[in-house]
Design brief:
The protein is an alpha+beta fold and 214 residues long. It is built from eight helices and six strands. The strands form two sheets. It has a three-stranded antiparallel β-sheet. Helix 5 packs across helix 6 (167-177).
Amino acid sequence: MKVVLALLAVFPALAGEYAVLQNGFRIPSERHEVIGEVVRLYTSTGNMDVAAREIARFEVEEYVKPAEPPKAIVQEPAVSFNDPRLLIDDAAARHGLLPEFVHSVAAAESAYRLDAVSPKGALGLMQLMPGTARELGVDPLDPAQNAEAGARYLKQLLIKYKDSKDPVRLALAAYNAGPGAVDRYAGIPPYRETQQYIERVLRKYLAQIKSKKS
């Protein structure tokens, strides 16, 4: 009898009640019936009689649905590495820049080529110099990091020259030739490549704005 009670004590009840015995054992039952000095317990597998004096009390226990195992969460990448234009859109949004502006820089820098390498060693979609990439703490060969860092660097330059007469052109000049050259000449450096680069970016930008409005 004690072995049977011990086994029943560890069987979980789905609903109903527990007969708590004087020795602490708890017997799950769906209901019970008092028959003289005997209590008949109706369990999910049948019924059993227990002397009434052996039962200390009955406890009602609500059914608690077992917790479902957590579903695996699959995080989809925010953008596709196969579409550099989406990388640029995402990077521009992250840093509060007009996407047309960042797109114009990317188009002028690499024509959206993720593996572009310039003769001077600039890398990737936004043509980051290795030193600039190190300062920004990114891997320039990772397309998403490259796009994000390029947009972040552009924003830093726009902020740096925000109080000048032409912050956009100075930021583009610094992006192309480096802030040191802009500061040294106190304006756009007299480099044909840099001057042509600025105009090329601005033409692309204005063309996008015009196309968007039409």
